[in-house]
Amino acid sequence: MTRHILSLPRCLGVGLFGLMIGQVFLHAQAQTTSMDSPSSSALPPGIERSAFGQLPDGREVDCYRITNDNGIEMRVINYGGIIVSLKTPDITGRMDDIVLGFDSLDDYLSDTYRQANPYFGALIGRYGNRIAHGRFTLDGETYQLPTNDGPNTLHGGDTGFNQRLWHAQPFSSAEGRGLVLTYTSPDGEQGFPGRLSTRVSYTLTNDNELAIDYRARTTRATPVNLTQHSYFNLQGEGSGTILNHRLMINASAYTPIDETLIPTGEIADVSGTPFDFRQPTAIGARMGQKNTQFAYAKGYDHNFVLSKNPGQADRPTLAAKVVEPQSGRVLELATTEPGLQFYSGNFLDGSLVGQSGRPYTHRSGLALETQHFPDSPNQPNFPSTILKPDETYHSRTVYRFSTTQTPEAASY
After folding, report:
1. Which of 229, 245, 302, 372 is an active site residue?
2. DSSP string, 107-171
3. Residue 390 CB partners (closer than 8 Å, separation 6+)
4. Active-site residue (options: 175, 189, 332, 369)
5. Mind listing the pLDDT tens digit for each residue in 73-120?
6. Could you give the 3-state DSSP secondary structure of residue 30?
7. Is residue 214 a contact partner of residue 394, using CB atoms and an 8 Å limit?
8. The pTM is what?
9. What gap in Å lies between CA 320 and CA 193, rounded to an integer?
10. Which of 107, 57, 56, 38 is nearest to 77 (CA)?
11. Which helix (H) or strand (E) holds 222?
12. What is the tens place of the pLDDT at every residue in 315-367?
């Protein structure tokens, strides 16, 4: 499961985007060569730190405001590695926050938030997505995890990485500025075997990209599937639904689910189904269709099997592209991961109020979670998620932000 990428060809259909990914990777490689916690240093230019609140046990939570040379601004807290804000320009140059989040730690700790449990902007681990019945067998031993999503385990259990206080170290380089987050999960935490040392770097580049590198090592064989759970609304958070966003997903297959949202094990062709996003399509265009999969998930909440070039399975390739017609904002996504979970904000109900002071209503944000497939520890025909002690887990995802003057004619 070691995924070190030293040279990268052009990504599928992304041209300079692919070359930029390669440049940012070399920077991230230099920043993350060791799994040891980084040492403290003065804040680099373009990065500010402020207090964000205090956890019930008295530990302080910090917020890091990171700005690139073009004015794109990201704010990250070390609680859960949460991206609380990400401001990018529209076609007129107006800056809006395009991710769902809060200005106060209390909002992330509130009973209302924890009951809804949307995982806004958080790092997810040890295992992103679902594990059936919270149970798997590894090397002849059966492990039981907390079940926090009906009969299943979701996003690492009831106290996953999204609720941990990470150690944060800011950095700056020629490519951009960012934050290295480290957390060590003890052997047995949430029922998982092995002591897992995790290191995640966020790099906001001067090419208007957010590159995320995930690394982990373990003392015992264990499932690992790390991801990032930001919700995007390219018109601006609190600005209504994402149903008019035009989405392309580079996938000719997806994994159908049962009524508890666990994959059936089938790899299904998207042709002729509402899951065919190989051509850009408005997210809401087919959601009114009668479809058993929609009935189970209340919309889109499915894993897509990403198309990869032969021999390049572990190199970042184009996974998805989103265009918002009114603002002209464009989001491109490339990853080394084999899967992408597209979630259409089906359970947002207006009970949570965001930074704009407006409620997050039904389908007011979309998540694109790069990942290995759900329930892989129980699905032998899915790519393995087992990390062994002699291996290094490395996964890489890059978001690129831009605008287009002609969103309806944007090339994909």
Report:
1. 229
2. HHHSHHHHHH---TTEEE-SB-SEEGGGEEEETTEEEE----BTTBEETTSTT-GGGSB-EEEEE
3. none
4. 369
5. 999 999 999 999 999 999 999 999 999 999 999 999 999 999 999 999
6. helix
7. yes
8. 0.90
9. 33
10. 107
11. strand 222-223
12. 899 999 999 999 999 999 999 999 999 999 999 999 999 999 999 999 999 99
332: annotated active-site residue: no
Nearest to 335 by CA among 353, 352, 318, 348: 318
**Residue 23, by phi and psi: left (phi above 0), alpha (psi -120 to 50) or beta?**
alpha
Catalytic residue status for 229: yes
Q: Which two tokens stand for residue 244?
A: 């008019």
Q: What is the Rg, in whole angstroms, of the alpha carbon atoms belonging to the chain?
A: 20
Structure-block tokens of residue 412: 């994909």
From CA 253, how far away is CA 194, in angstroms rounded? 33
Among the listed residues 230, 268, 260, the one whose alpha carbon sits nearest the alpha carbon of residue 367: 230
In angstroms, the Cα distances linking 35 to 214, 256, 393, 403 are: 11, 37, 11, 37
Q: Report residue 359 as tokens.
A: 């409620």
Residue 347 has which token pair?
């359970």
